[in-house]
Amino acid sequence: MRILNASGCLDALAAPDVARQLDAFVTKTVTPQPREGSAPPRIAETAHGMLNAIGLANPGRKRFLAEHLPRLGELGIPLWVSVGGFCADDYAATCSRLAGIEAIELNLSCPNVDEAADSAAEIVAACRQATELPLYAKLSAAHPDVADVARAVAAAGADGLSLINTLRATALDRELQPVLARGSGGLSGPALKPVALYAVSVCSEAASLPIVGMGGIESGRDALEFAACGARDIALGTVLFGDPGAPARVRAELAAACADLGVATPDDVRSLAKSPETMRKVHA
Questions:
Q1: Do 226 and 247 meet the contact criterion of CB atoms below 8 Å apart?
Q2: Has residue 274 got a pLDDT over 80?
Q3: β pairing state of 185-188 and 211-214
Q4: What are phi and psi of 173, to 5 degrees?
Q5: Mapping DSSP to helix (H, G, I), strand (E, B) and coil, where does residue 222 land?
Q6: Is 110 considered catalytic here?
Q7: Which of the following is catalytic: 9, 95, 110, 203?
Q8: Which sign does the torsion angle of CA 82, 246, 215, 263 carry?
Q9: Confidence at 281, pLDDT banded by 50, 70, 90
Q10: Residues with Cβ < 8 Å from 147, sequence gap 6 or more?
Q11: Which structural domains are found in the chain, ordered by start?
């Protein structure tokens, strides 16, 4: 089981020692044009996690390719580039310009932008024609049937799934006003874990694709639970803001959790947590 970071939760150039603890680094989402993102405040703590409304702030494709990607390549770790846009052509144009990286993560589920993107399957199909690099589709559990989306992107040419993105949520301050300038943001952290485990479980049954599981992972035991639901790899997100040593710690705790269960690796428990209800839903 490899440990990655969730896109947007780590600046590898500002914290290279943290990035080098990872098995692969995932960039912030890159869009064709530069984006300033949402107005501040755009990050806030909640009782059970964190809200963010960054709004895909990034330097844009041209500057990312010319300046940021070469510097990231000097870190000496495998790179995944998160790609975003507002139509299938946006995604495909960026994918066609990427080379020398391990994989592309297609951000199909950002809750902090208003523009409506094309369907997930249409975007994946366009990107599949534009590149031979592995494509991981990042999906949201907010969809009423995320397993159906998983099947659709698999049929369109995705090589893997990233599950899940944040869920839209709101928190209020003492004056009963939204704490974020945008009003709502993406909820991450421990509150997201049960939702993420369910999404990983049903999608692993729906599509025979490798899954990077994420959402509230803070310990080796959390990582092992994602494996039991079908994840091959995991990504750390909110935990990195408070514990820059989390990748190394989680890796050690994961080995200990496997030993406690008497198994050699997380692969030995993969998909162990399939419930009759999950099986009925997926195969209905």
A1: no
A2: no
A3: unpaired
A4: -90, -170
A5: helix
A6: yes
A7: 110
A8: positive
A9: very low
A10: 202, 203, 205, 206, 207, 281, 282
A11: 3-38+55-171+189-283 (3.20.20.70)
